[in-house]
Every structure is written in C-alpha cells, then in structure tokens.
Give the backbone structure.
Amino acid sequence: MGGRVENAHCPAGFRADAVALYRPRPGAAVKSAAGDLGLNPGTLRNWIRAADGRRPGAHSAPPDSAQAGGDAVQAELAAARRRIRELEEERDILRKAAWYFAGETRW
C-alpha cells in the first residue's frame, strides 16, 4: 500500500472530512491535498466528484448544478458548524479534565 489510504478501507466520515479539508483551499491542487492526506490523487478526485453529485470520472457538472451546488454548500456549512460545536465541547471537556488532574498532582 505504500502509506496511501485505499478507497475500500475508508469510512464515509473520512471521505467527507477529506473533501471538506480540500474545499476551503483556493487553488489547491488535488494532488497536493491528496498527498497531505496520504491518498491517491485519483481517489480524492473521485470523492470530490461524488460529493458534488457527479459520478466518479465525470468531467461535466450535472444539470441544475447551480441550485444543487447552493444546497450542497448550505448542507456542508451546517455540517461544518455542527462539527465545530462538537469539537469545542470536546476541547472544553479536555481542558476541564486537564485542570482537574493538574490539581490532583499538586502537593
């Protein structure tokens, strides 16, 4: 496998996260983003196409892509906001735990 992640072994959440990490990087090359994630560039490209509602290997946007794209962006934004809230809650819990355990080790 050579350090690359294979498509068959990736959960849907990882695929969605990989696409979400690629999207906000203006002008980023798929090859570069895939390399950062340890993915084959073709795999990431297929995941991006699938997330856009296109079949892997397709080169043109589906009809009504402007509306579908707007809905997809809103759904992605809502998912990102939910994920941010989850991560902030996790951070706060870990911060409180660190303070608790730091207090336990003081003499």
